[in-house]
Amino acid sequence: MRPGVRPWRARSPRDGWLARLRAEDTLLLAQPLTANSQYFVGWGTLALVNAGLAQGKNRSGLAWFLISLLLGPIATFVLVAFCEKK
């Protein structure tokens, strides 16, 4: 065998990126949702609620969902205060 050439062997899942993780990296993967990710989950939930409110007032749910992703609680206020049912 030539120097520097490794012999062929079957690859296992232990050979991939997961095997190269350090112990502190695996601790990061095992942590529950942080405050930052919970913020995004709450913001997305609010956008879904706003889409439902908009559909209840005969408005476009998709449009208000997208607006709510950008404006969040401000969009909720606009929907409740200024949008009347058609």
Give the low-confidence spans. none
Radius of gyration: 25 Å
Strand content: under 5%
Order of helices and strands: HHHH
Q: What is the structural class?
A: mainly alpha
Helix content class: 55-70%
Q: Specify the overall morphology.
A: elongated
Report the sheet with the most strands, covering strand number, pairing sense and barrel closure.
none
Report the count of strand segments. Answer: 0
* Termini gap: 80 Å
Mean pLDDT: 79
User: With helices defined by DSSP (H or I, 4 residues minimum), what is the helix count?
Assistant: 4
Give a brief description.
The chain is built from 4 helices and no strands. It is mainly alpha-helical. Helix 2 packs antiparallel against helix 3, helix 2 runs parallel beside helix 4 (about 75-80) and helix 3 packs across helix 4 (about 75-80).
